[in-house]
C-alpha cells in the first residue's frame, strides 16, 4: 500500500447481519468486510473512503454506522447520506449489495490533534467484530498541504480510489481530463477525483464508470470547468459541450460546469449520456441549450441551471429536485425542449424546485422538441417571471397540446390554472414521483 498517503483498517464482520428494508428473508449470514482508507490528509482536514463488501447473502438495503474519534467531523459526503450520529445510508447509489459485491462511499472531514481511524462499525444494526487497529501506521500529518507531488512513487502502487487535481501542481494532476484518463477503462469501483478551487478551461469527457468529480472549494462557484465551443463554431449542438458524461454511475458535486460562448448559437455546458448520473450542488451555466439530458436516467439535486432558450433539453428521464432554474434573458424563452420517446412514460420532472427569471411574464415552461415530449413541474415555486396565460408553446411542427405537459400543485406568483395549463390529477400524481421517474428496471433510487 502507499504508506505515505493511505491508512487502512479492515474490520471482519463475523456475526449475522440482518438486512434493512428487504422484501425477502435473505440476509448476510456469512458476514461482511469494511475497509476504511484515508487517501489524502493535510493540516486539519482529510479525504476518506469506505468500502463495504458483502460476504453473505444479498442485501437489498444497507446502513453503515461507526464512531468517529474525538475531533473528527464529516464536512461533505458522496455515495451516502450521513446523519449526525454518522449513519451512512444508501441514499445516493445502489441500495443492494449482492453476494461478493461491494459499494464504496467517501467523505471529506476535519480533525484536531490527530487523525485516528473510526471504530465500532455496524452494518444494518449488527456490530462488526474484529481488529480495529490500522494495518499500517497512520501517516504523520504535514503542517501544511504539500506543494509538490511525491518525486519517488512507492515500489508497489495499488489502484487509487481518490486523486486530486490542482492547477498549481499541488495535486497528482493539473487537468481534470488527465485524472479521468488515469482511471482504468474496466473500472468497477467508485473513483473519487477531487478538484481544488480554480478555473479549469478544458473539454472533459467522462468515459469510465463509477467516477466522481468533487469540488474542494467552499462553494460550487469556486471550482469551475468551462469552455466555449458552439454550434456556430462547427461542433454541432451536442458536440459543443464542455463536459461529456458518457459512462454510467457518474457523480458530480460542488462544481460549476459552464459554456461561456455567449448568445447567438447553441452552446452546451454538459451533455449527459450515461445512465444513473447524479449531480449534487452543481451549477450549470450557459445560454441557449445549456444542459443536454441526452439519454438514460439523471438526478439533479440542490443544483442551479441557467440559460435563455431550451436550456434543459433532451430525451432522458431526468429529475431536478430542490433546485433553482433561472431564465437569464429579459425577453424570456422556454426552459425545456424535451424529446421523450413515445415508449417512455417519464421524461423531465421538476420537483420542489424554484423557477426564477430576469423579467416578469416572459418565461415559458417548455416546448416539445419531440411530439411525445413529457415534462412535469410538480410542487414548484414559480416566480412572476412565468408567462402565466400561456406557459407552454409549440416547436416546429410539434404542438404543445399533443405533448405530455403537466403541472401539479405549484405555488408562487407564476402559478395558476387555465385551459393552457394542464394539471395532473391527484390520482395520477402518485405515479409521477421522482422515484418513479428514475427507478427503471433495476430499481435505482438516488432520491434524498
Automatic annotation (TrEMBL):
Keywords: Aspartyl esterase, Hydrolase, Signal
Superkingdom of origin: Bacteria
Catalytic activity as recorded in UniProt: [(1->4)-alpha-D-galacturonosyl methyl ester](n) + n H2O = [(1->4)-alpha-D-galacturonosyl](n) + n methanol + n H(+)
Biased composition (Pro residues): 135-157
SUPFAM superfamilies the UniProt entry points to: Carbohydrate-binding domain, Pectin lyase-like
Region (Disordered): 127-160
Enzyme class: hydrolase
KW Translocase (keyword) present: no
EC number from the UniProt entry: 3.1.1.11
Pathway stated in the Swiss-Prot or TrEMBL entry: Glycan metabolism; pectin degradation; 2-dehydro-3-deoxy-D-gluconate from pectin: step 1/5
Signal sequence, start to end: 1-28
Entry-linked InterPro entries: CBD2 (IPR001919), CBM2/CBM3_carb-bd_dom_sf (IPR008965), CBM2_carb-bd_dom_sf (IPR012291), Pectin_lyas_fold (IPR012334), Pectin_lyase_fold/virulence (IPR011050), Pectinesterase_Asp_AS (IPR033131), Pectinesterase_cat (IPR000070)
Pfam family, one: Pectinesterase
PANTHER family linked: ACYL-COA THIOESTER HYDROLASE YBHC-RELATED, PECTINESTERASE 53-RELATED
Family to which the UniProt record says this protein belongs: Belongs to the pectinesterase family.
Keyword DNA-binding appears in the UniProt entry: no
Active site per UniProt: 310
Residue intervals of the CBM2 domain: 25-131
Record PROSITE patterns: CBM2, PECTINESTERASE_2
Protein name (record): Pectinesterase
Transmembrane stretches, start-end: none
